[in-house]
Prior knowledge:
nine-stranded antiparallel sheet, 13 helices, D-amino Acid Aminotransferase, Chain A, domain 1, Dna Ligase, domain 1, binds adenosine-5'-triphosphate, 3 domains, binds magnesium ion, 18 strands
Amino acid sequence: QPVLGVLGGGQLARMLALAAAPLGVKTLVVDNVADACAGQVAPLVVADWADYDALEAFAAQVDVVTFDFENVPAETARWLAERVAVSPAPQALAVAQDRLAEKTLFRECGLHTPDFMTVDTREQLDQALAAIGVPAILKTRRLGYDGKGQFRLHVLADAEAAWAALGAQAAKHGLILEAFVPFERELSVIAVRGRDGDFRTWPLTRNWHVDGVLSMSLAPAPDIGQLQQRATALARTLAERLGYVGVFALELFVKNGDLLGNEMAPRVHNSGHWTIEGAYASQFENHVRAVLGLPLGDTGARSPSAMFNWIGELPDASALLRTVDAHWHDYGKQARPGRKVGHATVCAPDARQLATRLGAIAAALGREAQVAPVLSALG
Ligand code: ATP
Ligand code: MG
Ligand code: MG
């Protein structure tokens, strides 16, 4: 029986393990905390990323290693790759870990990006602000997620506060200053590439963030015209450049009909959770298939779907559990402000019925504000 090894034991590892089981694949997870939520559904090895004795034993038990957590040190990934198959490859992980390398690659692949400049010193921050202007966002090049490690500058005088917040990171990991893009829409393309080069994308997903954290997703994104083909072609170019194997997400802004690359995630992605119930093969199933060299499943959508992210704490499940084709996901994590503790996906035969279902759930949960942008996108 094949064994999938996963570095990181969060909800992504948990959903990978749940998708692996019906394929006859066992999962073994490594995390540095004993209460990692994937441990509720798969055996968990508790070890540090530099605990090479534990990693050696782990590598000996698995057929392939993959990631739930994109910030596993590239060094750890490279060390493992000398012992066991690692997908995606450590060099692809390394590019996605650094916003500078990532945006540079995007441009090389013909994907436009917001204007950006690297910032390593306080003086370079002033120079970058003079070139890029405000509004702008200062971001750590490495280790940021869910909008952490970012500072939004509205006026030039915000430079002091931005440096106070992130200056210490500049010396360690480097920063970049990005132009703030007044985008019309935010989209993501979830893509998968198999070992044999077979490449597929799911229909584009439209996303809404609140305070830098994903709040809602809607798929297939309505009214996208030619953007699907363009996003798919760009994702394919990226994947082939990186020799990528597995699922990844490409986060995009749409401005004046142009696609701008925000970042890529070298793993299954929150904006692809709708594929569990809304697509023929989910991102989790196809990731497992890809990294084990199995044929890929169909990435087509079964129906329009919307996903709610539950941040901080779970709402009452009952309204959702009573709704037709609505699906509850409790990650089994302790409630904590800002933490992703679960999600729900609602599917319906068409956009109108999806809007009706979402509206009813939102009213029952007091979540009208969270759902409002999705309802207006559904028309
Ligand atoms: P995650 O990895 O969880 O997606 P992150 O911490 O890497 O998040 P980003 O994706 O860079 O953060 O930013 C989070 C959100 O903030 C984006 O999805 C977008 O809504 C907004 N954002 C980021 N950069 C810009 C920008 N240059 N212009 C406008 N909005 C932006
Ligand atoms: Mg990110
Ligand atoms: Mg992001």
